[in-house]
Design brief:
With 340 residues, the chain is of the alpha/beta class. It contains 11 helices and 8 strands. The longest helix has 16 residues.
Length: 340
């Protein structure tokens, strides 16, 4: 970790929104493909706990954490219990093949963020879900005590475990600005360990991170995604780098950075899906590429005429894992606009 860069990242932050221990930020429901032609209902619980020990330059998750250095024991279980009961009232007929994402804006296996004493009760509340997905920093998985904690939690579940980890980019220029405190070797070894233990891996890759030349950002997003797949990640999610954490805005001019456009996201996804056509079934088996569409409405390079059909096309490509023709390309000239 670069202490100088860490200081700049933290000093650029806006005041944190006050959060209350034991009170979640709610839940969301979406569909994901299982890679075998089926759509799975996935619940996401947005849990409130302590802040991540790392200070990555692109991260804005600190906004959704407590000021306390350690999550109060029992507060995460309480949030999960309350969300379960709320959903049972509002959606009593759950899909039997449902997945559950427990996203605590930090690391699930860092004892400061989730006390290991809560793992057993959390696992009990996860009963009945086909898969449980949590987030964790890859560098932590180099520690034996963390690995042991991962395996104990896996064994407590009656379904599968998946761990989501941020790779962000393999571009050397982009990595200089990440402040990720993680080497590519650490990421690769973390994926290898999880794969050996039959734990699914989801990797997050950034489109157009700080430091990556704009003209090369699509290529680096594709290469980073393919590298994660080669390491053994089962699912790679491409996320457009967004502003909102303070630091990115403060250095944007210095590094000639601008938010990625809708067209860049389309190009990267198209390339990933089309490249698989020339690979063998063995090379592509169980590897799923998706794009994150949560911030689609705020992305540049689209308009009210083309936004909805372009969004729908990407969503269907997420589901089908197949390239689809761009039927909305005739609607306007948004794709030809260069954002400066």
């Amino acid at each position: 970790m670069d202490k100088s860069l860490t200081g700049k990242i933290r000093s650029a932050r806006s005041p944190k929104i006050p959060r209350v221990a034991g009170q979640s930020m709610g839940w969301a429901q979406e569909l994901e493909t299982d890679g075998h032609g089926n759509l799975i209902s996935a619940l996401t619980y947005f849990l409130v706990g302590s802040e991540c020990r790392f200070s990555c330059s692109m991260c804005d998750l600190w906004k959704y954490t407590l000021d306390a250095k350690k999550t109060p024991v029992g507060s995460l279980t309480l949030q999960i219990e309350n969300l379960h009961r709320r959903i049972a009232r509002e959606s009593p007929n759950r899909n039997p093949r449902e997945w559950l994402k427990l996203y605590n804006a930090s690391n699930f296996f860092d004892p400061a963020n989730v006390d290991p004493s809560e793992h057993a009760t959390i696992a009990q509340w996860c009963r009945g879900f086909e898969r449980v997905i949590v987030e964790n920093h890859a560098a932590l998985l180099a520690r034996q005590n963390i690995r042991d904690s991962v395996l104990r939690f896996r064994d407590l579940l009656d379904g599968e475990l998946e761990i989501a980890m941020g790779l962000e980019t393999i571009d050397p220029q982009g990595r200089k600005w990440l402040n990720k405190s993680m080497s590519l070797d650490q990421f690769a070894k973390a994926v290898e360990f999880l794969g050996t233990e039959a734990i699914h891996v989801r990797a997050f890759v950034l489109l157009q991170p700080l430091g990556t030349p704009l003209a090369d950002s699509v290529d680096w997003a594709v290469r980073s995604s393919q590298w994660a797949a080669q390491c053994g990640a089962n699912r790679i999610c491409l996320i457009p780098t967004r502003t909102g954490n303070g630091f990115i805005q403060s250095v944007a001019k210095q590094v000639a950075w601008q938010p990625p456009t809708a067209r860049q996201l389309e190009q990267a996804f198209e390339k990933l899906l089309q490249d698989r056509l020339g690979q063998s079934a063995l090379e592509t088996s169980e590897v799923i590429y998706t794009v994150d569409l949560w911030d689609w409405d705020s992305m540049l390079g689209k308009c009210s005429t083309c936004s909805e059909p372009r969004h729908e096309r990407l969503k269907q490509m997420n589901y089908s894992q197949c390239f689809q023709s761009d039927v909305a390309s005739h609607l306007c000239d948004c794709r030809a606009i260069q954002i400066k």
